[in-house]
Design goal:
single chain, TIM Barrel, eight-stranded parallel β-barrel, two-stranded antiparallel sheet, binds iron/sulfur cluster, Aldo/keto reductase, 4Fe4S_Fe-S-bd, NAD(P)_OxRdtase_dom_sf
Amino acid sequence: MIYKPYGKTGKMVSALGFGGMRFKDDCSIEEGAEIVRYANSLGINYFDTAPNYCNDRSEDIFGEAFKNMSGEFYVSTKSSLGSEPDADSVRRRIENSLKRLGIDKINFHHMWCIMDLNHYKKVMAKGGPYWGALKAKEEGLIDHLVFSTHASGEEIRIMVEEGYFEGVTLGYNILNFPYRQEGILAAHQHGLGVATMNPLGGGLIPENQEYFSFVKQNQNESVVQAALRFNASHECISVTLSGMGSKEEVKHNVDAVKNLTILKNSQIETLKSSLRQDMNQLCTTCQYCKHCPKGINIPKYMDLYNYYVLKGINGIKEMYELLSKYGDIDFEKDMAPSDCIGCKKCETLCTQKLNIVDRLDWINRNVITK
Ligand code: SF4
Ligand code: SF4
């Protein structure tokens, strides 16, 4: 296992981290704990969980595993910020996580799922969640205060530059990396650790192996391994999280990051240009089209359309339902596809030359259910 520095924290974390959101429904607490301990025995030392993962069993599974884990390890968990979060509610959540995990201190505590700059401001407001977590840190309950986010690279840069956090966790993979690259570079420049989640594009990559076979460096590696290596080999990424629900998956994924050659940014840029040639039907979420006069969040809808390109009508419908359920698509903020007036300004700006107007119209007619 290769270990990389997590920002300026002094901690060396395994290039592959264990994401605790993929334990199977029929997996018992002890069976899950056994998988976690096995991962630790293969060198994984970064374990990421959160309240509510896996029907709210994930923290309990890790807590069970930690009772008998022999190797050194670091624990990452999160405070859900809710609709009107405050310092006291975050404090309660931290105490609850400590109890369930059976530990005295959370190594990496996340302000969870910051969606954009407005959300960030709420987190940082006086008396808000950040200050509750900071107090817990001062009392020794937390090692490092970090955040997770689904914001754009540009917004992540702004958050990072404010200087309140020691690390960031963000979604990054061969589908969306242009959208987040700026945030990763900014975090690295400012000495923050970077954890990446969703390296397999929410299952899109393993479920479409033929389509993504171009990322493989040789015939012996699987597409999943190639996708993990793409993240883990980035010099600005400290740890690549992968949700693992069996020992076989753990072994397969650990093999992917063996003998990893850390790529320089210049090499990533070269890879980026060759990837794009293969991705000509997919939106890369680069955001060049974002100057819509109607304020439509075009990258978000085009990213959704990716699921139609790759997985067909059921794939896009399932993803839309999931995004709606968690408020990741909000017609008040993102506007609706039906708000498009067909000016085609976006199409002239699109780096992929996508027929955005037609795609929005198609989503409106075939996918939107309210
Ligand atoms: S064509 Fe539609 S989505 Fe594109 S910029 Fe004009 S209004 Fe916005
Ligand atoms: S629609 Fe085109 S310009 Fe807009 S984010 Fe996607 S690829 Fe980039």
